[in-house]
Each structure stands twice: as C-alpha cells, then as structure tokens.
Description:
By secondary structure, the chain is mainly α. It has three helices and no strands. The chain starts with 12 loop residues before the first helix and ends in a 10-residue tail after the last helix. The model has no long low-confidence stretch (mean pLDDT 88).
Amino acid sequence: MMQATLVPPRSILVIVLGFGVWTVAFVGLYAVNAIGCAFAWPSTVQRAVMIGLALAASGSMMAVAGWSIGHWRRAANAPRPAPGLARIGAMGSTAALAATILVFAPSLFASMCL
C-alpha cells in the first residue's frame, strides 16, 4: 500500500498569484487615472504616471510569470498534485501577463479623461 504524501495548502496559491497581481495593478492604474481626472492633473503628468504604472505592472507580471514557469519546472518531481498545480499556475500567470499587456496598452495612447 502506497503512503500518500501531503502537499502543503500554500501550493494552491500559485494558481491565483498571476491574476492576483494583475488585479492589484489594474485597480491601482485605474484609481490613479480617476484621481488624475478628478483633480485635473495636466495631461502630460497624468500620461507619464499612467505609462510608468503600466510599465511597472508589466515588469512585475513578467517576473511573476517567469517565477511561475520556474516553479513549474522545479515541481516536476514533487508529489502529486504539486506538478499539476504548478502547471496551472504557470499558465495562469502567462495569461495574466497577456491580459496586462492588452488591458494596459491603451494608457499609452488613449484619452485620459472623457
């Protein structure tokens, strides 16, 4: 009879890591946009802040996706279900990176306040 090895519950957190970071960045970016519009920031200042936040969020998401892919590779020989959870996390983080690029790209050229 095989003895089951326990996988720590924190292993599930890798699944939500990518979109968790994306959510924080999304809320932060659009909160800063709303604050800039409400306080009538000069458009050049607001655009610079928005571009800086979008680039910081993209860099953060690249780091998270890179870490998740590395975690997936390291978890290959771990007891089940860790490899599957790591794979789901890596794919989710990669999807969150794509969502970051697609959703934050309009801050580079779109009108700030309507």
